[in-house]
Amino acid sequence: MDEAHVQRRKERLDLAARFRPTQIKVLVLDSAPRGTAEDYFYRATSDRTVRSVTGRMYFDELAKTMGSKVAKIDEILCLNEFRNKGFFLNYGVECPIENKGELLNALRRLAPTIVKRVQYLLQPNYIVPISKGTEELIRLFGLIGWGDRLVLDKGGPFVDPYLGDPERQAVFATSFGDRISKALAGLPS
Q: Under DSSP, is residue 108 helix (H, G, I), strand (E, B) or coil?
């Protein structure tokens, strides 16, 4: 691990800390940060073209989880609303890992630490897993008695196989933002 890697991780953690609510109502739990530094969710930008298509779609899907219907997204306002409503995005693994096998191995190895971080540090009312890699964590949250805090999609994490492909996402209705919003609307606050 080189100094640049450590610096990028520190920067991501600092950005997330700026938008962390005092009481986390909804913890959106992803496996790891996706894409490039410009695609990092908490790196708000006024020029959305710096994000990749996948990065923009990911941001928009997370914005939809709050139940907001916005035609044009202002990322700073959106992140402030995310925080004010008690939403927080966190990752099992804090650094991007492109290789799926390596990511799954890291998640398995770190699973007990991830669960303790969520249970004792973040303490959310609800946990919404949003990637395939979080499946193992679902089982562990159930084992510690937190199964009732999990918001799941047919017993598993919310996944969009067409994130980054707007046409297919629309055709196959795989958008996870609206599905999460609908699932959260039926829960006590």
A: helix
Cβ atoms of 158 and 129 within 8 Å: the answer is yes
Given a cut of 80, is residue 178 above it in pLDDT?
A: yes
68, 127 Cβ separation under 8 angstroms: no
pTM metric for this prediction: 0.92
CATH assignment of the domain containing 68? 3.40.470
Task: Count the neighbouring beta carbons within 10 Å of the beta carbon of residue 155.
Answer: 8
Where in the sequence is the domain holding 151, given as residue range(s)? Answer: 24-185
Structure tokens at 92: 């099992």
R_g of the chain computed on alpha carbons = 16
Residues 6+ away with beta carbon under 8 Å from 103: 31, 32, 93, 97, 133
Query: In sequence order, what are the beta bridge partners of 126?
Result: 26
What 149-153 contacts at long range (C-beta under 8 Å, 24+ apart), as own/partner pairs, is 149/124, 149/125, 150/126, 151/26, 151/126, 151/127, 151/180, 151/183, 151/184, 151/187, 152/183, 153/179, 153/183
Share of residues in the chain with pLDDT > 90 (%): 68
What pLDDT digit, counting tens, does each position of 68-117 carry?
766 678 999 999 999 999 999 999 998 888 899 999 999 999 999 999 99
Whether 18 maps to a domain, the answer reads: no
Of 52, 39, 24, 41, residue with least CA distance to 76: 41
Cα 188 from Cα 106, distance rounded (Å): 34
Q: How many domains does the chain have?
A: 1
